[in-house]
Amino acid sequence: MTEQKRFNYLIISALVILVDQITKLLVRKYMLHQSIPVIGDFFRLTHVENPGIAFGLGFESNAFNRIFFSIITFFVIFVILILLKKSNSHIEKIAFSLILGGGLGNLIDRIAFGSITDFFDVYFFNIFGLERWPIFNIADSASVVAIFILLIYVFFFEPRQSKKQHIV
Q: How far is 24 from 93, CA to CA, in rounded Å?
């Protein structure tokens, strides 16, 4: 892979970080723990600070959360960088770039503020006992989209390519 192509994938990560940080800055500046209906009760912008990880999970000590989850995030980012470098698939590189941008976007919050700014608040039709999905942000969205891309790629496209290669 040429340096130019590697740089193009990192632009995806940089864009995720930029949009994520701008939206979080706007939320922290203008919302101050408010909840604003956008589409009635179905979709709201609700400012929360999450010192833990996904779904608000974490330890009682915010300081421990900050250190522990920062270390975990650094490790995951390191692994994603390796996967990004080793991958020969355009789809995988896009997905890894989205995960990298999401991880770095949330890491910036964790290091700078001790918690992650979340604000997308969506009604979940009371599925699995959840009336509302846990509040999330752009970085989280990029990572989830990337995981879906990888799952679709692995289950529907990669096996077909592997079978074609074995037949020839």
A: 26
